[in-house]
Amino acid sequence: MSKAWRVRQGMICAAILTLGLIPLWQATGQAPTPSAPAETAKSDKSGAIPRLPDGHPDLQGLWHNDSGYQAMMKNMRSGKGLAVALGDFHGEGFPLPLPYLPDAEKVRDYRKLHDPYHDPEAHCHVPGVPRETEQPSSLMPFQIIQDEKYVVFLYEYVHDVRIVPEDGSAHPKKYWAWDGDSRGHWEGDTFVVDVSNFNGRSWLDMEGNFVDENEHVVERYTMSGPNAIDYAALVEDPTVFTKPWTIHLTLTRNPAKDQIVYYDCHEGERDVQHYTQSEGNKANKHE
Amino acid sequence: MSKRFVLALMMAAAIAACGRADAQTAKENSYSPPRLSDGTPDFRGIWQSRTTAYINIEGRPADSGTGAAKSIVVDPPDGKIPYLPDALKQRDKNYRERATADPANNCFQAGVPRTNFLPTPFQFVQSVGHLAIVYTDDHAYRIVLPSSIPHDDGIDFFMGDSRGQWEGNTLVVDVTDLGDQTWLDGAGNYHSDQLHVVERYTMVGPDTMKYEATLDDPSVYTKPWTIRLILYRDKSPDARIAEDECIDGPDGVWHHVSPTDPRALRRHDFNAELEAAAKSQ
C-alpha cells in the first residue's frame, strides 16, 4: 500500500465521518480519526489557572469539545442506536430549536430535507464560527498559541486558522470570509472575540441550520481551571433569527503528549461523487 | 545577586556559546535579532519572498509579464538541480504538461519548500516554547515542534512534518513525511515521497530573513542540493494573512476567491432560493 494511498484513505475516512455515514465506519471498525482524543485529560475545575508574563490566562495547548460528535460517538458505543445518537450531535449547550424568522426557517427545512449534500463543510470549506469549535473540534482538537498581541487558533480540521489580535481593533470594511474577521480583547480573565464580516455561506451543522452575511458572533473564552475553558458564543443575525441565541461548551485540554495531525481535506479528494450526481459529474472532470 | 540576574547571565552565556558553535556563518549572521523573554530570536511577523522562484526555481528569461530571474539554487554552483537521468526526463515531461499537471492547479497545499516562495505572505506565530508558520495559500499551516519529539512515522502530509531547533540565531527545521503529490515550482521540478528537507531561517536585518533549504531525495537527485533566498517583512499597518480558499467554484473549476472581492460575499435571497427549490421538484 503506497504512502499516498494511506493518506488518501485517511481523507476518505474523514470525509465519510463528515457526511455522517456512520454505519460504514462502524462496519469497518476503524478508529474515528488518528488524533481523536481517546483518553482525555479529566476536566479539572480546581487549581490555579496558568498565566503568561502579561498576566492574562495562558490559553495555550490542545483543546477539544466533549459534546457534539464526541457525545454522538459515545452514545453509539453505549448502544443507544444510530438514530438516537445522530440526534445528539449538538450536545446540551446548543439551544435547539433556533429562533428562525419564517422565511429563513423554510430555507432551513428545505436544505435539511432535500439539500444536505450542499453543506459547505462536506466540500472542505472551513466551517465558520462557532461551528468549528462545536462540531469538528469534538473529534479533532485545536491548538492555541498565544503571545501578548495575538491569540492564534490552529484547528486540526481542514487546517482552519484564526489569528486574533488582542487589541480590540476595528473590523475591516471590505473583507468577507467563511471565518469572518476576528478581533479580540480581554475582559478580566475572559478573552472576548468579536467576529463579523462573514461571507453569508456557512451552515451551523449538517442539518441545514445556517447563518447569512449579517451574522455577528461574540465568543467568550474563560478558563475555569487549568484544564478547562468555558466557551460561550452569542450568535445574532437579524435577517435569519428573531433574537440572538447563545451556545455554551466546555473545552477540555488534551493530554500533553497529543499533537495536531495535519488534516488535508480537499487535497486528493476523490469522494465528491458520493455527494450528489451533479457534484459527481464535476468531480469526474478532474479525474 | 538576584535569581533573575543569575538566570539572565546563564542565558547570555548560553547564547554566546551557541553563537560560537555557529562560527562558520557568524559573519553574515552578525545581526542580533529581537528576542522573546526566553532569549530565542523573535521571528514574529508577516514575511514574503519577492522572487519569481514560484514559476521556476532554476531561473528564467524575461517574458511579457515578469522580468528575468536567476536560479535560487546556490549549490551546485551552476544553479541546476542535480537530477538523476530518468528524473530529468520526468521533470521535462512535467514541464511540458505543467498547465494541467501542476498540483497547484488543483489548489493542493504547496508543500515544503515551495510554500515559502509563493507570491503570498506568511506569518510566524511564536511564543515561548511554541512556533507555527501560517501561510496565506489554502490556509495551510505548519506547527514546528521541538526536535526532541521524533517525527511521526508511516504517514505523509502535504506540508510535511516539521521539527525545529535553534543553532545560535538560526532556526533549523527538519522536514520529513512529505508526499509525492507536490511540486517544487510551476515548471515541473519535483521530488518523491522520500524527500527530506532541512531549512535554515536566519534574520539578517530587522526586516529581512535569509532562508536556505537543502533537499535530499536519493530516488530523484544525485546528491543533496540547496536553495537560498531572502524573505522581507510586510511592514504595512494593516498587513494580515487573509483567508484564502481555492476549491470548487460554481463553474466546477478550482480557483482562489479573495475575501476582499465583493463576489466573495453572498447576500441571501431566501425567496429566490425557495422558488428555485420549488421548480426543481
Explain this structure.
The complex is a heterodimer of chains A (287) and B (281). Chain A has helices at 3-19, 22-28, 69-77, 82-86, 102-114, 131-134, 136-139, 277-285; strands at residues 61-65, 142-146, 150-155, 161-165, 181-187, 190-196, 216-225, 228-236, 245-253. With 287 residues, chain A is of the alpha+beta class. In chain A, strands 4-3-2-1-9-8-7-6-5 form a nine-stranded antiparallel β-sheet. Chain A is globular and about 50 Å long. Chain A starts with a helix and ends with a helix. In chain A, 45% of the residues are buried. Chain B is α+β, with helices and mostly antiparallel strands. Chain B has helices at residues 3-21, 85-96, 98-101, 270-280; strands at 45-49, 73-75, 122-127, 130-135, 141-143, 145-146, 161-167, 170-176, 196-205, 208-216, 225-233, 245-248, 254-257. In chain B, the strands form two sheets. In chain B, strands 1, 2, 3, 4, 5, 6, 7, 8, 9, 10 and 11 form an eleven-stranded mixed β-sheet that branches. In chain B, strands 12-13 form a two-stranded antiparallel ribbon. In chain B, a hairpin with an 8-residue loop joins strand 10 (208-216) and strand 11 (225-233). The chains are: A alpha+beta (287), B alpha+beta (281). The interface between A and B is large, with 59 and 55 residues.
Short description:
The complex is a heterodimer of chains A (287) and B (281). Chain A is 24% helix and 22% strand.
Name the descriptors.
heterodimer; A: 287 residues; 8 helices; disordered C terminus; B: 281 residues; alpha+beta; two-stranded antiparallel ribbon; 13 strands; 16% helix; 27% strand
